[in-house]
Design goal:
The protein is α+β, with helices and mostly antiparallel strands. It is 38% helix and 25% strand. It is built from ten helices and ten strands. Strands 1-6-2-3 form a four-stranded antiparallel sheet.
Length: 219
């Protein structure tokens, strides 16, 4: 699935193609801010801005998206895992723009979900979790990509949770155990909206919710 960087949140949320091929992207786009922002804001703007509380960076990570850039001299492709560098900092060079986002096809048996604890005024994620889970015919987890936003200075993969899930039976105990590792390696933000301790708690809670929702959507 190839998406132009200037595609708006509203277009993503309402696209039957996106809903079919990458439902988590349509869902998350529909949760961004308000109608005015969704009508003007774009996926390329969100990813390039790399706001620590933005919704789509976590979704891009969970989907394993690839960022295609353009400049006067060359084009290159950057994996989502390498794209988000730090607070409002990406791997884009000063002479580059993000031109297209490529999302690989989801394997059969894959469910996705994005859930967040939103700021009541701005609807930014105090903590948000994106989960892409592939369930095998025997009910075990074949693969997992889980990404966190809002918690730290940038969107990041919850690799410890992913490792805990793969091969598990995806029962409550397995999901709870995986969710308990979701905050590992995150330098939690602390501001007027939430303390670092509260964000750490939210990360575990919302990781569990996202995983359960993704597993449910897989079936």
């Amino acid at each position: 699935l190839a998406i132009g960087a200037m595609t708006t949140y509203t277009a993503l949320a309402g696209s039957e193609l996106v809903q079919s091929k990458a439902p988590i992207l349509a869902d998350a786009s529909g949760q961004v801010a308000d109608n005015q922002i969704r009508n003007r804001g774009t996926i390329g703007g969100s990813l390039s801005h790399s706001d620590p509380a933005g919704d789509l960076p976590a979704v891009a990570l969970a989907l394993g998206a690839q960022m295609k850039t353009s400049s006067s001299g060359a084009h290159r492709t950057i994996n989502a895992d390498d794209f988000f560098v730090d607070l409002m900092t990406t791997a884009l060079e000063p002479n580059e723009i993000l031109s297209e986002i490529s999302i690989p096809a989801l394997p059969a048996g894959t469910g996705t979900a994005y859930v967040k604890f939103a700021n009541k005024a701005s609807h930014y994620a105090v903590v948000g979790v994106a989960a892409v889970i592939t369930v095998g015919s025997d009910g075990t987890c074949q693969s997992a990509r889980i990404a966190i936003t809002g918690a730290g200075p940038k969107a990041t993969r919850a690799t410890a949770s992913e490792s805990a899930l793969v091969g598990s039976s995806l029962d409550d105990a397995a999901i709870n155990a995986a969710a308990s590792h979701a905050g590992e390696g995150i330098d939690f933000n602390e501001d007027v909206h939430a303390s670092a301790e509260y964000r750490a708690h939210l990360t575990k809670v919302y990781a569990g919710r996202a995983i359960r929702a993704a597993v449910g959507n897989a079936s």
